[in-house]
Every structure is written in structure tokens, then in C-alpha cells.
Amino acid sequence: MNWKIIVWELMLVSFLFSCTDPGKVGVNDDQQVNYDYLKSHFQQPEQVYGVNCWWWWLNGNVTKEAITKDLEAMKSKNFQGAMIFDAGGHNQRGNKDIPAGPLFGSKEWTDLFVFALDEAKRLGLEMGFNIQSGWNLGGPCVTPQYAAKQLTYSELKTTGGKTLHLQLAKPEEHKGFYKDVAVLAFPANGENQTDKTVDKLDLKLGLHELGGSAPDCRFLLENTSRSEERKTGKTAYLVDPSKIVDLTAQMDEKGALSWDAPQGEWNIMRIGYTCTNSEVSTSSNEWQGNVLDYMSKEAFDYYWNTVVEPIFKAAGDHVGSTLKFMETDSWECGGMNWTDSFSDEFRAYCGYDLKQYLPLIAGHVVGNVDVSNAFLADFRKAIAHLVANNHYARFAAYAHKNNMGIQPESAGPHAGPLDGIKNYGFSDIVMSEFWSPSPHRPRPQDRFFIKQASSAAHIYGKKIVGAESFTTIGPHWNDELWHDQKSAFDHEICDGLNRLYFHTFTCSPAEQGLPGQEYFAGTHVNPRVTWWDQSGPFVDYLHRTQMLVQEGKFVADVLYYYGDHVPNVYPFKHRDMAGAMFGFDYDVTDETIFMKLDVDNGNVTTPAGGTYKVLVLPDHRVLSLAVLKKLETLVKEGAHVIGYKPLKTVSLVGGKTADAEFKQLADKLWGDVTEATGRNEYGKGTVSWGKNAKEYLLSQNIPVDFSIEGNDSKTDFDYIHYRIGETHLYFVSNQTDEKQTVTARFRVSGLQPELWDALSGEIREAEAFAQKDGLTSVPLVLEPYGSVFVVFNKEIGKNRQGTKQRNYPDYETVKTLDGSWTVCFDPKWGGPASVVFPELMDWTTHPDKGIRYYSGTAVYNKRFTVDFEKTPANRCFLQLENVKDVGIAAVRINHTDKGIVWTKPFRVDITDALKEGENELVVEVTNSWFNRVAGDEMSVSPTRYTQTNVVLGNDFRGNPVSEIQLEPSGLLGPVTIVRTKTPDNG
After folding, report:
1. CB burial class (10 A; 0-12, 13-18, 19+) of residue 213?
2. Which H or E run contains 907?
3. Is the pTM of this model over 0.85?
4. How confident is the model at residue 674 (pLDDT cuts 50, 70, 90)?
């Protein structure tokens, strides 16, 4: 990257920080968001802190009645808004077809879209939309001229020493599109044949994406084995750039070449570009077609004017008011590596002509393997630069012109030719994704991707970190809220998430029955799921959590620079390349922001106000010269840097002069390194190596920000720390399915700890705590996948200690409600009106098929006698312990509603409703649609109760299974009454 481009990008970053964010969201500007505001609104947060959703218009099959029903349902749960997402996918993985609705963008579709905006305005919901059907931006209107492109070539071996008249074969062509780039000839004698070639060439050329879980792509910077031999059987040549002959002007438009060829054997390459084979994915009915060229401004302009502008015209005054955001989904279109202006744009970006390096595309080596790899690194970096500036920046410019924002999933996890954080710089809401457990993505590293997005928000100064949330492939309806959804949500809150977008909320017309049409993937959340009416407390938990984390300023000690290679997509938080965990937190930055870093009193700072004690370099010992120059300035001004001495820059930018300057700067900063561990002072700062971030910070007597006494696991617990003014806010999460009694330590002193429970909205001061050496220790009890906010606000003396030993009561069981229960099912869904269970049991083990395959709500009734002592000092709780399969239950005792429980151990305070003598208990348990749909699919009853396109008789790949395993359901208990023990510690 030459200096002109560096200056241009710095100006661009300055513009990004200075412009008004059309996606700014929050309370009224006149309302000061401080501790008092948060405390007064914690029980019932304002709608602006609500969840959002991917509102799936599946195959375009929606109606006005279904639109109104869905939007009113969202409003009833205080949703912040919805993202209209027209798409297909209904029949993937062995599922069935559904009727086709209007084609995306047609007059009929647009009429429904405008109706949805009218209704959203009536209800006060903020709307967005995906600017196509499906994903991989494109569609039927995208002609080959505007489609994604890739290089292609043909070769001809010939003998010189005469005038040649040759017909050069047209290179491979896709979709009827081909244009020439260059015709090059180079000597092809036996002495310049080589078996040392560039490995993984297709990946290095950007022809494919690399996996879907944010893989580490640094291996593309060099060969994995220098002695690796080419095994294709094709002869490869070592090409001297100075001996390449440019014959472009000597070939006519039909491919006829005339050339007075010098003596010797020559290889002639006709190089051009054609369309990729990429197509739009998962679109509704007829919205198929080519993927757009992401490197072309002209292509985006064409798409905008052809597809988006007519929709805006129809939407009228809704644009920029009710309709606020636009979305495109994650990159899943493979690779692309050329566009009409690529040669000129590459020269402007990298400062040299790429033509002499084009023989690489045929597997030849130009200069040597190192030179070839360096060119390919520049080549991919140029692609990423064009994707960022000609696509995502263009998208943002159009949005801002219309007083709207963008929130594309522009940074993976599929590793296309992208620099993820660079792309995020153009987003108004920074979007990523995370998955609930499913057989398609069972491992954490394949499910959680928020860390990169939240880092981008922090370093660019963006407020909202959103995510396509609870995606799955395999499960349908049977997700267990406390186990699958809460655990995943809390995990990603600790990674920096602050707004959830349910994936997915499918719109389904009444004609589609119940549970209706559904997308093949995702956690189904909509008013047709069995537990929607009971979902309020679950959604309230999400809202309370989001309110606090949206308003805080993230606290981290470490800034990790992830390099300038492409693809560059940072993996999940626990990959922890900086070595900060457990106890310290970190952000990740790209080259764009790196060039804007500053130093304040020894801390590294970003333009958005982020402050970090230490800057960590990647361990592959490769930096760009621009970054190394900036690094020297930072260290000289007082920055503290961790990283091994860089060995090289993998780039041809600046040539040999740049290589010499690179070595000189590295020697300045690191000195003559001979030890595996060391430290060098330079200017006001230091460079250290051989330690990770945590080891370094501890060596500087900086205590960890958070710890669990006696537990140093990176996975059992997690946290995130924010500041709101002078208030410290920690979210602490138990990431295990076991109850944990722990002592947590916080790097705060002189402030009273408070416990804010997002499940109930309760706020109370911690009575048990201890202060020592600038730390505050707080005893906590965290239920399975439990969480709590620990908030420090009120000033106290730094020597003051708590007055008690614990902050949570111990419980003792005073009665077990065993024996028989009367259970009432809804005959409408095949269950008996009333049945007696001799003891609690799993419905799927009952001999009555109406119970075994039942879905919906069943009402458990039981009378019991209080035969234990009630005292004013002790509270009594009903504990259900085990509720399946969704895990949600409503409790009434003696006709008093005690609310809904949805997390382990399903415990609710019944003290005030409990009476001496006989009591009446009613527990309403709701399971998912899974078992009833399974029963209907297996025709276990002459009556078919459900209607859906989902086929449960297939596995997550779409292959038939031998048997549908039913989901355990019902109140399984044991159901007990527990009483708080009288504390013995005063």
C-alpha cells in the first residue's frame, strides 16, 4: 500500500469518526443515561433496548393479516423492531415446498412491504430490510456485466526465431462473458522449469473462500513446505519478470497474434476475466441469478438503482423514519478476484503494475517463491480494499443519503477475500452471528463470532453490536431456553454483544396452519410457537441485559493487532491470540485503525476513546512497513508493545528500499535480539517479547480485572466490564450446567458492590464483600448457566468490609410434593381432558398416544398440606427443578399468580401465598411443537393436528433417520418446597 493510499484511508477514517451516525440509537438526547437512569428503568427498560428479529418472509408467502399479527406480537413483547428478510430455504435439507408469494421487488411484494411499514409506524416499531431475497447480493437483474468476476487464461507453447501468426485459444468462459486483460510471453526452456511452486494457489488467488468458522488464514503468506513439488503433471516455469514480453497490443479482438518471436522456446499466455459461477443463495421462488461484483462501484450503483431505489420510491416518507436500516447477509459466494478497473486500482493502491506477475495464475513462479507469495498477498489485500471501498462504503453512502444506516454481516465468519474489521468501519450497526448448540455446529469455535464485531464497534465508536442469534441447523422447536438460548446469549454478552436479532421469526399466513411454515434453520420464535404467550420473562431478561451493556463503555487492558493479511477474520473470543485471558479482556484492531492509534500517558488510545495498557502484535512475525513505521512512533511516544521481532514484510510495496527500511526499524525497536524473552526500551516506551499479555501485565503489578477465587478456567466462567461515567458494571456468567458457589474478585475499590438480577429486575446491595489491595471480593451463587450484574457506584471507604458472609441464602427442603397429580391436556391437540399421574413422569413414556405425542400446555393440579413451620425470618419457595422440553412453566398457588419460570432450578417465591393447612397448586407446563409434529408425521393418530413444511424424519443433513426420537416433556421434578435457612452469621 503506497503512501497516497495510506493518507487517503486515514482521511476516510477521520470522516467515519466525524460524521453523524444515522444508526445512532438510544434514549432521547435530552435524557442523561447514568446510574440513576439505569436503576430506575432496569425493571422495565424502554423499547429502544428491546430485541429485534430476522422477520423471515419465506418464499415471499406472506399476507397482510399475517403481517399485522406478527408486528402486534412483536410490540406486545416490547421488540425494538424487525428486519424484513425475504428468503427461501423452506425446502432445504429434505423439508417440503410451500406456496410462492410475490417475487421480491415486484409491485405485489412492494405493496406488502409498504403495508408492513404502515403497520410498524402505527405500532412504533423500527424497521429494516435485507436488500435482496436470500443472500450473496445479486439476483435475476444482475447481468454478466455486473456479476462477480475471476481471472482465466489459456496457454500456448511455441518456438521463436521467426514471425509467428497464431490463433490464441479463448480462455475458459462462464455465462457468456469474457474480456482480455493481457497477452504475455516468457521463455520456457528446460533450464527455467521448476518443481518449487506456490502451494494452495487457488486460495491465494482468492478463487475460493476458506471455511465458515473464521479460520486463521496467515498460512497463505508463504508456502507451508518449500520443497513441495507440483503434482498436477503440468510443467511450471520460473519466470524472470525482466524477460516477460507484453504482446497485448499484437493480438486482435478475435485472438489472432502476430509476433516476431526471438529465438528459443516461449510460453504465451492469453489472460482475461470471466464471471464466477456464484449464484444467489437461499432466495425466494424466482429471485435467482448472478452474484454482484463486490469490487465494482458501478455494479453496486446498478443494483441500487435497479432494485432498491424503486422500493424506496414506493415507501415514500417511511424511508429514513420508520425504515431505518438495511442488511446484507454474510459472504458465502466463494471467491472473486477481478473487476473491470482492477489493474488501475491495484496500481493506485499498491504502487506498482501487476501485469508482470500474472503468469502466477497458471501456476508458474515469478521471480521466486517468496516474491510470488508477496505479490499474492498484495493481490488479496487489494481485493479486500476494493470490497470495502467499492461495495460496503458505497452501500453506506447511499444509506446515509437517505438518512438510513447499514448493518451488513460484512466480516465473516466465512473467510472470503475480506478484511473484516476494515469492512465494519462502514457499518452503522456492527453485525455478526452466533449459534445455539446443533449438530451442524457443535463446538464453541464454530458457534461464537462476536468478538471481532464488538472490537470493531469499540475502536470505531459504534454503539450497537448486533447478531443473527440462535442459528441452528437440525433442531426444530425443541430448543431448551435455559440450556441452549440463555447460555449462548450470555456467552456472547461477555464477548460484547448488545442487541439480539432472533433468527428466525418466520411470518406464516393462517392458511399454512400450525405451527405453519418455517425456515429450515434457526430457533423458531414467533407467535405460533407453543410458548409465545409465556415468553415475556425470557424476553424481559434479554432487554434488561441489553439496556445495561448498550450504555456502557467497554473496559479492556489489551489491544491485539491481527495483521494485514487477507482473508482476515478474527475467530471467537477464547482463541485469545493476545494471551489476555482469563482475567484480562481485549479488543482486536486492523491496519486501518492501527494507523490512527495514539498514546496518552503510556496508554494506547483509539480515535473513539478506547484506552489500553498494552498493544500486542501477531506471532507470525510479519508486519507491513506502514504498520512498523507507526509502531515506532507509538513506542517512541510511550506505548508498551508485546511481540517478537518481525522478520519481514510479505509485500512488494516499496521494493528493496522498503525491505532495507523495514530491517532498520525492526533493529531500532527490538535491538539485537538473542534471548527468547526480553525487553527493549525505546523512546518513552518499551517492546517486550516472550510473554503473553497476561504475563506481561501481571509482571507490571497490574492485577487482573476479574477472577474467580480458586478457578482459573477460561471456560467455566466469563465476564465483561463496562463503565458508565464513574460507575463500574460487570456482567458475570456461569458457563456450566452446574450450580456454582464462588467468590469473584473485581479490580475496583472504594465503591459499594450491588447485585442486579436481570431475571427478576431486582437490585440490592451486596452485604458480603471484602476489600483488599485495590480489589473487591464478592461471594456469588450462580445457578446453572446463571448470571448477575455486579455494579459499583456508591462511594465507601476503601477499608470498609461487608457485614455478612454470604449474599445468597442457603435452602433446606421442607416438603417434597410426591405422589399423584391431576393433569389436564387440551383435547384440541389430542390430549385427554384430565388424567391422573400416579407420580411425575415424562409424557413420551405414557401409554396414551394423546399424551406421548402431545404438544402445548398441560395444567398440573395438586393439593398439599403445610406441615412445616413458617417463620417471618424465612422465605418459602416452590422449586420445580426439571421442566421439559422448552423448560417453561407458570405457577399459581391458592389462586395467586406467582409468575413464569424458565431457568434452572425453576424456583419461585410462594411465601405470601402459602397458608396453614391445605393449599392448592397449579403448574402450567408448555412443551414445544416437536412431539405433535412427529406424531403426525408418523401417522400415530387418524387425526392430523399440525401443518408444516418441516420434516422431522430427516437428520440435519437432510438424510432420512430410522426413528424420530421424541423430546422428553412435562414437569419431571422432583417438586419441592424449600425454605431459606436462618443465617448464622448475623
Report:
1. buried
2. strand 907-909
3. yes
4. confident
